[in-house]
Design brief:
Layout (H helix, E strand, L loop, with lengths): L10 E5 L2 E5 L5 E3 L2 E3 L5 E5 L2 H16 L14 E5 L3 E6 L5 E7 L4 E3 L4 E5 L4 H8 L8 E5 L2 E6 L2 E6 L5 H14 L3 E6 L1 H9 L13 E7 L2 E5 L7 E4 L16 E6 L10 E7 L2 E7 L14 H4 L4 H9 L10 H8 L3 H12 L4 E4 L4 E4 L14 H11 L3 E4 L2 E4 L6 E5 L5 E3 L2 H6 L7 H17 L1
Antiparallel strand pairs: 1-2, 3-4, 5-9, 5-11, 6-7, 6-10, 7-8, 8-20, 11-12, 12-13, 14-18, 15-16, 15-17, 18-19, 19-20, 21-22, 23-24, 24-25, 25-26
Helix pairs in contact: 3-8, 6-8, 7-8, 9-11
Protein name: SWIM zinc finger
GO molecular function: zinc ion binding
InterPro entries: Znf_SWIM
């Protein structure tokens, strides 16, 4: 739990110049360090109706559970100010859907955008107010580290910060690793995209969004396919995309990102809706029952001995950049690009790194968590370090015996350096959810042996 102290109560002040909305902040992290009362943004959104619909979509994702939908869900989007834009992010309660609204410089009209991150509760009164916004209604927005306020001529609504779920933190780390491996697979006009979305099944309490569909790009269109083929894009749990329907009347286009399809297996995918001065991105895990928080994509980077030390060095060079240039960061840190990426993965475990598909670049945020807690949130990493500390890793050429007595497993390393294991985790996922603890422990010992030889 985070504790926040406010100097004054948030209020609307009346004067001869009109109404002024003051949101009191409790402090936040900026390039200058800890600031008692920073201001992130104070002004108007240039496309208020589109912004309201997109913010509602982000809030709807935070409020939804697409797997086991009868259970309750969180409702607390995260807001980051990157100096020239605002980013609003959320995960579904099942952590299988990630949503982000990027309000870009053309979408903002007001003071300079500051730097910082906060999480807020968008509750039902605010959602009802946003849903009523028409094309001519003004939307004045003030964002600070204690919450988000939206003001119309009809009233004022103030949302207070709420704790960030630990599962969301793991999801932030895994989503950026997955997104960095996506490529643009399709780009279609808004009308075609809206038609595709209208054809999707509606989510129900019984469906659990378990269906997997496939789409094939055909020129500037997307057509359904009965099975995966060359260039096909996976649409896992298509019911989870229905939330985008509410923004399509404002859309100017849509892009779909995904990895290459291998052996017809389902994959994660991201749908990016272009809006006036904004982008709304929805990223789906490869199965509704699989949350991003358990993908294990960060484990290889976290297992390297240098990752933690490099992360401290790289973190000193981050200054809330909306786009992180890895090559430039590599030159400044004096580290190879691969080690910089591993360091950013480490920083991602505390929510400090995200990935923007449209710009194919990482961005910096700052959540109230430390990188030192990464091991506590990754039991496989913790288990691997324990095996190494106990001396339970015995390497014999291409084979490695990991564990003791009846709990031992064999890890095989092929000529390309790829590893496989005899444990149940590996048999079930085949590396599809990251390495098992035995493979991680083997990699740690082998890396140590290489460094000692060098």
């Amino acid at each position: 739990m985070q504790t926040y102290t406010y100097l004054h109560a948030s209020a609307v002040h009346e004067s001869s110049a009109g109404r002024a909305l003051a949101l009191e902040t409790s402090g936040g992290n900026t390039p200058a360090g800890e600031v008692t009362n920073p201001r992130f943004f104070n002004g108007f959104l240039t496309a208020p109706a589109a912004a309201a619909a997109a913010l509602l979509a982000v809030a709807d994702v935070a409020a939804a559970r697409y797997y086991r939908p009868q259970l309750s869900a969180w409702l607390d989007p995260v807001v980051t100010a990157n100096g020239d834009r605002l980013r609003m992010e959320s995960f579904s309660g099942c952590c299988g859907v990630y949503a982000r609204l990027d309000v870009l410089p053309p979408g903002l009209d007001g003071d300079d955008v500051g730097h910082g991150t906060t999480n807020v509760d968008v509750n039902m009164p605010l959602r009802r107010a946003l849903a009523k916004l028409g094309g001519l209604d003004p939307l004045h927005l003030t964002v600070g580290p204690d919450g988000i306020e939206a003001t119309t001529f009809d009233g004022r609504f103030v949302e207070k910060k709420v704790p960030l779920p630990d599962r969301w933190l793991r999801g932030f780390a895994e989503a950026q690793v997955l997104a960095a491996g996506f490529t643009l697979r399709a780009e279609v006009p808004a009308a075609q995209a809206a038609a595709v979305l209208r054809s999707l099944p509606q989510p129900t309490a019984q469906s659990n969004a378990r269906t997997t569909k496939w789409l094939v790009p055909a020129g500037r269109a997307l057509r359904p396919a009965s099975r995966p083929g060359p260039g096909a894009v996976c649409l896992p749990g298509p019911e989870r995309l229905v939330v985008l329907q509410q923004v399509m009347r404002h859309a100017t286009g849509l892009r779909v990102y995904a990895p290459d399809v291998a052996d017809g297996a389902a994959t994660a995918a991201a749908w990016e809706v272009e809006l006036p001065g904004m982008r709304l991105t929805l990223m789906l895990s490869q199965d509704a029952s699989r949350g991003f928080s358990g993908e294990g994509g960060v484990l290889d980077a976290l297992a390297t001995e240098s990752a933690a030390q490099d992360a401290d060095q790289v973190a000193e060079l981050l200054a809330w950049q909306p786009k992180i240039d890895v090559a430039d960061l590599s030159r400044q840190a004096g580290l190879p690009a691969e080690r910089v990426r591993a360091a950013m993965t480490m920083l991602g475990t505390s929510g400090q790194i995200g990935y923007d598909l449209a710009e194919q670049a990482y961005f910096h945020r700052h959540l109230p968590y430390s990188t030192g807690a990464a091991e506590a949130r990754n039991p496989r990493l913790r288990g691997a370090r324990k095996l190494v500390a106990e001396g339970a890793v015995q390497i014999d050429g291409a084979l490695t015996r990991v564990g003791k007595d009846e709990n031992a497993h064999l890890v095989r390393t092929d000529d390309t350096g790829q590893m496989s294991c005899t444990c149940f985790w590996w048999a079930k996922y085949r590396g599809g959810r990251g390495p098992c603890k035995h493979v991680l422990a083997t990699r740690m010992v082998r890396d140590t042996m290489k460094e000692s030889v060098q």
